Amino acid sequence: MVLLGGCTSMDVVSSPSQALTRDAAQHTYLGAWAHQAEQRHDAVSGMTLVSDGPTAFALRASLAAHAQKTLDVQTYILEGDRTGRALLRQMLQAAQRGVRVRLLLDDLTSRNKQAMLAAFDSHPNIEVRVFNPVTAGRGFRLTYYLALVANFDRKHRRMHNKLWVTDNAVAITGGRNLGDEYFEVDDELNFNDLDVMAVGPVVATLSGSFDSYWNHPLAVPLRQFASARNDAWHDLLVALGEDAAQGNALSTQPAFRRMVGESGRRLLDSLVWAPAIALWDSPHKLAVTGYPPFGLTVMDQLEGAFRRLDDEMLIISPYVIPTQAGIDYLKHLAQRGVRLTVLTNSLEATDVPSLHGAYAPWRPAMLKQGARLHELRGNPAAAPERAVGEISSLHTKAVAFDQDRVFIGSLNADPRSLWWNSELGLLIDSRELGQQLWDLARQGMSPTRSYQVTLEEDSSLRWETRRDGEWITTNQEPGGLWRHLKAKALRLLPIEHLL
Hints:
This is Phosphatidylserine/phosphatidylglycerophosphate/cardiolipin synthase. Pfam families: PLDc_2 (PF13091). It contains 20 helices and 21 strands. It is α+β, with helices and mostly antiparallel strands. The chain has 2 domains: 2-9 and 18-269, Endonuclease Chain A (Endonuclease, Chain A), CATH 3.30.870; 278-498, Endonuclease, Chain A (2-Layer Sandwich). The strands form 3 sheets. The chain has a 10-stranded mixed beta sheet with strand order 11-18-17-16-12-13-14-19-20-21, with helices on both faces. Strand 19 (450-455) and strand 20 form a beta hairpin. Helix 16 crosses helix 20 (481-490). The protein is globular, with a radius of gyration of 22 Å.
């Protein structure tokens, strides 16, 4: 019965809704705050890169605290940990002030938090929807995954977008999910990640992307699967408040000052004003059978940026699986004199060793075409001297086209992001932000933080790094035995196109 249920579809009637209009947004505090800066710049947007995890958390908390009309949050993962619960508390407090809160989650990572989310959803000003849900077997992990397998071709597709928009005036998008490791406060694993905070015309476009997903038939109200009594949100708010009182959540007090007074003016003054467009996969990409048309993908929209490349391209991605098509394109770039630089995770740093196994065989081909390859070193969680908040893995997803154009968002350099996930990002024409992205990459590619991978004359690989002031070179890939075994195991399966 579970398997048959996994093949069924769900006809759900849900009420459409739209982002706050731009005119109405200007009558909010944040709308007026952003508008005073926009008036000095014609038809361009103001943006700042957010690479520091605690700052990324504080900005989101501040945007929730300053919301007056609407708060739209779209994410692949919302953890039930310290930062996840702290941000839920900020959203719930905004709803108490009369703010309409729309929370859109991918189904795969929301199932085990249904009771908490149902309590959150019980507030009259809040609605939670899950994208591309498995409709059967949700009560237990085993039955859920059986139902997923029964309709795998349709249900393995994931909404990977990350977006936070307040009053259709200020937006944050990039690579971060909502959880401790993405804000660099986890006790074991912390990610190097990157967001863009934006004001100006591009915010309305980002809100349009949210609406296109929120109003799509694949976005199903959570109440279809889980419900709570009408006042359950009150108990949840009390519990979340106890978290904060006990010090189990990050203090958001510094965040409240970021967009008011002198600190708010400094933040506006730090924005880089430049042309920017929001690019996203059509949500219908996740609804088609088999491979979606290329025209539904972000990569189709990025084609012009790839054509305009002159000298060099930078790819920063935690997962890199070029496939043969990518190698063929790399040959094309080499023939044009364009050099590729890649920063990704080493085997010892990746949070998914199995994906590293799909990437590893392609390294010689990439290096033969002149690519420069850097792999971030890991910091083993077992190391006794390791400090809480120390970066141990790369999660940034960004591309630099030469020095003056960047794409920053949720898109990994792998087939899953191209074909099976939905993704979102900003394409920005700015030499200043381009230089900032290259500077961040150079920090990650420093010999003290990463390995440079090169190709020997006998086609073997060499890893070179610097520790304690000494150069270290090895022909054995760094990483423990268990990680090597997990990386190699995946190569036995013909599933590279799904990774």
